[in-house]
Predict the structure.
Amino acid sequence: MDTTIKENMLYYITHWGIRASIGAISVKDPSGNVIYKTTTAHSHVGVMNLDLAFPTAGQNTISLTTSIGMKMMGMDVPAMARTHTMLSGDPMEGWKKDPDNDFGTRTYEFPVIVLSEKQVKTVQGSEKDTSLNIEMAANSDQIVAGQPITLVFTVTNAKDGSMVTHPDMLLKVRTGSMVTVNSAPSGGMMMPMNGAYHGHTGVMTYTTTFPRAGQYTLNLDLNSLPVSNLMFGSAQARFVLNVAEAAGGDNIISTTTALSGPNTVNIVGMEAPFAPNSINVKAGTTLTFVNVDGNMHTVTTVKKGTTEPDGRIDSGLIKAGETFTAKFATPGTYDYFCAIHTGMKGTVNVS
């Protein structure tokens, strides 16, 4: 049984070949919270259907307690209505050939791995023979009404998977008849002139709080610029998100939760570059840089007082949620910056 599914997928529980079974079904999320329960499930032909939208990514658990035998709810039942194994043929006639089957009450658990919110659309550009892959991913395994969430949009060339540089994006978000976000209208020259999201390396982020639970539609309008490495013209994509109702507590499982520790530096973003921004360590220490921002960044050491790389340490692109480790073996001062966002600067003092 394949137990890796997407959120909101219809899930079926089957009693193989057992008819007239009684069951109690419960579903727990990765934190152990019961998100679904019934004690009156019943099957006449061995199949019970469970229609459930899993609100939380990770390992959910379906628990099934079943009781089969010659009695139902403590009462004797006629032979035809007794629980038994269907060997073959018409279920209304086959029971005459089959023995009674009574093994009491048993409980079974099935782990169900629910994938994080990530969607990919392949769309055609308005320029001939151009196509894009547009990925939308959330920086958290659960999208909950009233709680901040960051969506990361990544644009790549559908033909070779390379990043598409310098796309502009307009975004419109609606739920039902209510529009929650609508960026500026496009200007002249077939591209937005103000209020657009822009991806230097093909990555754009959008942080928001969805006001209420339900289904949201995100419409994207993208344009290439004269400096883009793929002149695709314009393209459109549409994504649908399901936002869960807030539960009793904060049960978000974040894939980019900031780490803490003496040898950890969090890459926060342009508004607060690195945490800590200056760190003192002993020679031989290995530092872990964690990108807790939605954008890609680098950790690149530079010559003092400049933005010229000195060749000592260069992480390359660190995607959202990823980490980079570097060992500082030699005493000295290491000034570093993000090669994409040059205003993001930090220092490692090695003694």
Remarks:
- The radius of gyration is 28 Å.
- The mean pLDDT is 76.
- Helices lie at 91-94.
